[in-house]
Specification:
Number of strands: 0
Shape: globular
Structural class: mainly alpha
Order of helices and strands: HHHHHHHHHH
Helix content: 55-70%
């Protein structure tokens, strides 16, 4: 139990690294949460500082999910301290637990007053390690929606919904035998609902027509 607790704690701490705040402080001396949408995420960094800075934040935030699922679990995993009733092997189940801890850390970071980002990038990195095919399809949905609409929030929402939807279609329509499907499905549904929850204000702005669109122009000043 101690080792599993260590995996959860270290995954949470890695997920809690406030990349957007570090980048905005280092480059402009500002708290990104006081600008743009007020969110501590890569999209807001892209909106306020520019696409290069925003892309770096998004990639690093995704890497946090990879670190939790791949590195931390391998460093601390020994045996699972409870009966595993899922169809997954013990290690995969621990990876899922570590990934969830990292996403929670990104959303409610202990290093910034529990006010972090929306969890999209970190969940992306984590899920790429667990449901690779479905995540690649979701990324395609995200890129297509953002390219057409320039609403990153809409792309994130539809991409999140695409993961469980793709799982259902592959398993039940194309008869793909997905290992651990019955456990994976509620897990990715939970993550999709979490994404919708963290984007609830964006949903309101989208419905009102007041949501900001993404611009790839370099921002000269954040002040």
């Amino acid at each position: 139990m101690i080792l599993l607790a260590a995996i959860v704690v270290f995954s949470y701490l890695v997920g809690s690294i406030p990349t957007s705040l570090i980048v905005s402080k280092a480059l402009r001396g500002i708290d990104i949460r006081n600008y743009g949408s007020g969110n501590a995420g890569g999209t807001n960094v892209m909106r306020v500082l520019g696409w290069k800075e925003g892309s770096f934040v998004i990639l690093f935030d995704a890497f946090k999910g990879v670190i939790a699922v791949v590195l931390i679990t391998r460093l601390f995993y020994d045996t699972i301290p409870f009966e595993n009733i899922t169809p997954f092997d013990d290690f995969t189940l621990v990876q899922i637990i570590a990934g969830i801890a990292a996403v929670i850390g990104h959303i409610w970071t202990v290093f910034a007053g529990f006010k972090g980002g929306k969890g999209i990038a970190t969940a992306l990195g984590m899920l790429l390690m667990i449901v690779t095919v479905d995540m690649l399809i979701a990324i395609g949905v995200f890129v297509l929606v953002v390219t057409i609409s320039r609403y990153v929030s809409l792309g994130s929402l539809l991409g999140a919904v695409a993961v469980p939807l793709t799982l259902v279609i592959r398993e039940n329509i194309f008869d793909v035998n997905i290992p651990g499907y019955s456990t994976l499905l509620p897990f990715v549904i939970f993550l999709a609902l979490l994404v919708i929850y963290t984007h609830r204000k964006n949903v309101v702005r989208l419905l009102e027509g007041s949501e900001s669109k993404l611009s790839f122009k370099k921002k000269k000043s954040a002040a």
